[in-house]
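User: Here's a protein and a ligand (CU-O-CU linkage). What would the complex look like?
Assistant: Let me lay out the input and then the predicted complex.
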Amino acid sequence: MNDAKVAVTLAALLLTAVAGVLWFTRPIDTELAAATYIEPVASTGVVHEYRLVAAPTTGSLTEGTETDLWTYNGATPGPEIRITHGDTVRVVLENNLPEPTSIHWHGIRVPHAMDGVPGLTQAPVAPGETFTYEFTPPDAGTYWYHSHRRGNEQLARGLYGALIVENPAEPTYAVDEVWLIDDWRVDDQGTLDPDFASSADVHHSGRWGELFTVNGATGTELRAAPGERIRLRLVNTANARILQPDFGALDPVVIAMDGLPVARAFSAHGVELAPGNRMDIDVTIPSDASGEFSIGDFFTGITPTEIARIVVDGDPVATPDFEPPTEGLPDWSLAADDPADHTVTVTLYSEFAEADADEQEAMLAGERDATFRWELNGEAWPAAETLTADQGELQKIRIINDSGQFHPIHLHGQFFQLVSRNDVRVSEGHYRDTVLMSAFETIEIVVGAYDVGTWMLHCHIQLHAEFGMAMLYEVRP
Ligand code: C2O
Ligand code: CU
């Protein structure tokens, strides 16, 4: 090697080293965002029109019972809206409830005016009034719609439904179903507990119920032949309950989280599904199977509580042989070591806890009220600060849970990646719109701020949000 060559080689090595260092220490920038979920979708020109009438209804959640529900078009869940990617949805909401309402399209990047947040993106829809929502979902996947006003009661009484955007580029499953999983607090007659804001629930983990339903009923069964390959779209529509689906002897893989496809399919065993979360699974019924498979919830128990069943039925079919649908994504966990753009601390403010002994006595005696609320950076909605971003920015938000409760944190309008838990980097290989944080846990998320508007960032435990746990995330053009 002559001197000139040595010099060139050394320079090249040095450059590579510098580039390497730069790569690992580079600040979050928009380049990282290349190849995200942002892909313009060509409109198909097809418009699906629905009229959703929100009204009180008497219905049955489990055989032989009746209770007062609030539903869309007379049943909970409301109609399943299923469209092809590129189609447009037009929904006329008619409000026949005794109070104002609105519909939010959970996880769908809708134009800001269609986001369904009363007082922010639209006026509340008063009793007797209508409001028309119209949008073309930019991303295919599993989504759901629900009331976004007084969710602690309106969701708990049944105002929700599924919205599925099929991607024609993905393999078709002969069985493709949605399970909207909910729990209800009922008495032994199956009547809904009418106290939708008990102070114990607000202080603790929200309103959990004891009656599980799938698609509004107990005893839900999905029939499938031996060898059948199924796409099952699981949605946690509960007010507060966290699920950990149990599949018994079946071996499903997760192919999508919160709507969007994962980078590589992974086992569905042990995956937690917090309120708001979705997970699409790909599961094959063994070709020699017969009888039934119990699908349960494992989150609270040692033995799973059954929530539904897959019943094996009919002659064996040939199992279709295709790769599970996946899609690459940039790894935003590169940003885990960078400083946070925003820090949000979650606390529970309790006037009782702050009071002196005399005052506490008066509160206990019922002589004066003790207020309490969930706060973000020391303020409750609507006083909480607004976080800001410029369009196109990748931002890291650090969220510190300084409370002993779980909080499923949900952001409207954009997807994010979870990049660390308790300062340990994680790389999940999928986007999210909702992430569960445990008691006293710190998490970091990286948000791709692409959709201009002022969006809600809130806890999806309905009573926590109702009692203050919400703030705004403003993406400026
Ligand atoms: Cu699923 Cu702001 O809600
Ligand atoms: Cu919460």
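Summary: The CA atoms of residues 169 and 217 lie 33 Å apart.
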